[in-house]
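The data layer described in this paper is built around a simple, fixed record for each protein. Such a record has a labelled line for the sequence and another for the C-alpha cells. For reference, a complete record is included directly beneath this paragraph.
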Amino acid sequence: MNRIPKGCVSYGAELGGALELCRASFMERFGAYGYVPFFPSGLQLLESSWEMLPPSFRKRLLLVTSPFGEPCCLRPDITLAVVSSLASGMKGAGRPRRICYADRVYKKPEGQDAPVETYQLGAERLGWDGEGADMEMIVLLIGALESMGLVDITIALGDVSIMRTAMNRTGSASAGLVDVLQSGSLTDFLTLVDCADIPDYSRRILRELPFLKGNGDVLDEGAKIFDDPEPFRNLRSLYDGLVSLGYGDRIVLDLGLARELGYYSGPVFDVYAPDSGVPIGGGGRYDALLQRFGVRSQAVGCAINLERSVIDAVSREKDEPLVAWGGGVPRERAFLAAERLRRSGIRFEMSWCDDSAASMRDAREGGQRWWTDLSGDEVIDLERGGSVGLASWSKGRRTC
C-alpha cells in the first residue's frame, strides 16, 4: 500500500495550486519591502535549539541523529534558525535585516488528528527601528493575506509586557499562570489566581485584565486597573497608528494575550480567519531572543499556518485556467500566441489536438470551462455555451 506517514500531507492538483498562490503572494508582498528569502536547514542541532525553547515546546521535538552522529531535531521553528543565522553578523550597528520564508516545520502532534508537519509562511525583521517595525509587520501581513483572498481576517493585538508587569509580584506562580492563560481556559486561570499565594493587588489585576478586549477604550480601562497609563503607552501608539491607516475594523485589542515561547517581549498578535476560533498564525516582538544570542537589538516577526489559510483561499472563486488550442495553426505561431497570453497574466493549458471539437471534448471531460483557439481572440464557455472576447474575459468580464 502506497501511503505517507500519519500526520503528514502531500499537496497536488487544486490544493497544490492554491498553496503555491498563497506562497507567491506572501513572498511578493514582503519582497517588495526588502525582505529576502531564507531557506533554513531541515535539521537543527539540539545544542542550538534546546536552551532557546521552553519545556512545553521541547516535549514536541522530533529527535534524530545525523549521519555524523550529531544529536539533532527536525526543524520545529524557523524563527530560531533565522536568528541564529543572522545574529553573528549583528554584533555591530547596521541596517535592519529583513527575512521571509515559506517552508515546513515539524513537531509531535498535540492531539489524535493533529499534524506532524505544517507548511509555514513567515517573516522576521531584526535591527533597531522603533515602533514603526511593529506596524510594518502587521500591515504587510494584512496585505499578504488579502492578496491570498483572506479579506475578512481579524487581528487580536496585545502586549506581553502588560501581563508581565501584572505578574511582577507573583514570584514562582507566574510561570504556571502564563501556561494556563496560554491554554485559553479563563476558568482555570481564575481558579489558579484565586488559589495562588500572591498579593491581593496582583490578584485584583489578574482577575480583570484577561477580560479587557475590544477597541481603544480597553486601554483606558487597563490604565485605571493599574493606576498607571505607562504600561499601555506602546500598545496605544501601535493601535492608534493602525486605526489611522484604516485597519480599525480588523483590530481587536486583547490585554490578556499571552505567548508560549518565553522570548516574546512587547506587542504580539494572533490572526483569525472568519468562523475560526483557532488562530491561523500570529507574531510579535521578541527582543529577548536576540539577547540570548548576545545581541541587544529589536526583533519582530510573524508566521502563518498555510494549510489553514489554503482552506479559505481555495473556497473563494477560483481563477480558472484557460484551455488554449494550438492545433489550428503552425506550432511556432501557437507558441507566439501563448507567450502573449502569458505576458498578459493569463493562466492557461495548451491543447495540441488536431481537431478543435476533440480538444473541447477533452476540456469538458477534464472539468475545464473556458476554451480558446490561439488563432482567434474569443473565449468559449464550455459549460453554458456562447463566447466572449479574450480582452474582456481576461479582465473578469466573463458573461457570454
In short: The mean pLDDT is 86. The CA atoms of residues 173 and 197 lie 8 Å apart. The domain at 322-394 is CATH 3.40.50.800 (Rossmann fold). The chain has three domains: 1-153+273-315, 162-245, 322-394.
